[in-house]
Specification:
- The protein is mainly beta and 331 residues long.
- The chain contains three helices and 22 strands.
- It has helices spanning 33-42, 210-218, 220-226; strands spanning 3-8, 11-16, 29-30, 61-64, 72-73, 85-87, 97-98, 111-113, 124-125, 137-139, 148-149, 162-164, 173-174, 187-189, 198-199, 233-235, 244-245, 259-261, 270-271, 283-287, 294-295, 308-311.
- A nine-stranded parallel β-sheet has the order 5-7-9-11-13-15-17-19-21, with no helix packed on it.
Length: 331
């Protein structure tokens, strides 16, 4: 067992590998050069049990100070904590990565503060970054070097209202379950991601989990409000590198309306099954797609407000199931 201590004017508490220690309730600042020492020592080799800050019972705000000079965060570092605010704004000039489960399953976390400068050196966000938290807003627009967001990024962050990408010229991969179950999310704009190559499974899928269905049986009225997606708009731009949109992209976002225009993704090869199943979109534009080979089943099934579908030249498209056009008034 390795014990480390984090000091400031208020005192200290222990941190060790594998288990969490109870922290004093009056802590508001966590500092310690030993964090940097530990990260450098292991250099990404986490074969041993991860070291986790002892904040299981701490419900205040956590501020990470500039003198930590962290280049990144180890896996599971703040997983399962009860803090309501995490401020990493003083580390904006150094942080390049978040490893897996950085702040996953923090049921009270409402705010992650990147500060006015954002995270300009950030390259990678690992799996389950803020999964199952109550965070309300995330802004990545200052993270102009960001390339990859791994799976379960904001998975089932049911209080999330805004997710801002901005213009990220190097961003390539948005992996599966990124924002699945984010029922409060109102709008998503992908137009500032010109290097985007793939959109993973269930990115904006709004289908209740088994746990949510069980809760709905106990409180049908409350669950009906909670589990109804607020998403009304999804915007695409020019994405010449985008080759695949995986299954169930925006399934069951029942309030999604307006036009979904993919004409700027002219090198798409595959649009997988259930793309906009059970949404309220009124128009879909695909345009000329010389490399498109496959459009999956139930592509636009149950889109009862659908008025028009625009299909351009698609010389490589082998098959298409036309039942998805049953609601369209023009083609």
């Amino acid at each position: 067992w390795r014990f480390f201590y984090f000091w400031d004017a208020l005192g200290c508490f222990g941190v060790h590998s594998g288990e969490k220690e109870e922290a004093p309730e009056d802590w508001s600042v966590i500092v310690g050069d030993v964090v940097l020492e530990w990260v450098n020592k292991f250099s990404g080799d986490y074969e041993d049990a991860p070291i986790t800050l002892g904040l299981a019972h701490f419900d205040g705000s956590v501020i990470l100070e500039e003198r930590l000079q962290l280049g990144g965060f180890p896996p599971h570092w703040l997983e399962g904590c009860n803090m309501h605010t995490l401020d990493i704004s003083q580390l904006c000039k150094t942080v390049m990565y978040f490893d897996d489960f950085f702040c996953a399953d923090c049921p009270n976390l409402k705010k992650l503060d990147f500060g006015d400068d954002g995270l300009p050196k950030l390259v990678t966000i690992g799996c389950a970054f803020l999964q199952n938290s109550k965070v309300e807003s995330i802004d990545l627009s200052k993270s102009t070097k960001l390339e990859v967001i791994e799976a379960h990024y904001l998975h089932r962050c049911t209080a999330l209202k805004t997710m801002t990408f901005g213009t990220l010229p190097q961003f390539q991969d948005l992996n599966m379950y990124a924002m699945e179950g984010c029922y409060a999310l109102e709008e998503v704009d992908f137009s500032g991601l010109p290097a985007l190559t793939k959109i993973g499974w269930n990115t904006l899928r709004m289908v209740p989990s088994e746990e949510e269905e069980d809760a709905a049986e106990e409180d049908p009225e409350g669950a009906a409000t909670l589990l109804t997606s607020a998403l009304t708009k999804v915007t695409f731009g020019k994405h010449p590198e985008l080759v695949v949109i995986d299954e169930m992209f925006c399934m069951n976002a029942t309030r999604l309306t307006g036009t979904v225009d993919l004409s700027g993704a002219f090198n798409l090869q595959r649009i997988q099954h259930y793309f906009l199943l059970d949404t309220a979109v009124t128009a879909v534009v695909l345009g000329d797609m010389p490399s498109l080979e496959f459009i999956g089943t139930d592509f636009l099934t149950n889109c009862e407000q659908l008025v028009s579908v625009t299909l351009g030249k698609m010389p490589q498209l082998a098959t298409i199931q036309l039942e998805f056009l049953a609601c369209a008034k023009s083609l």
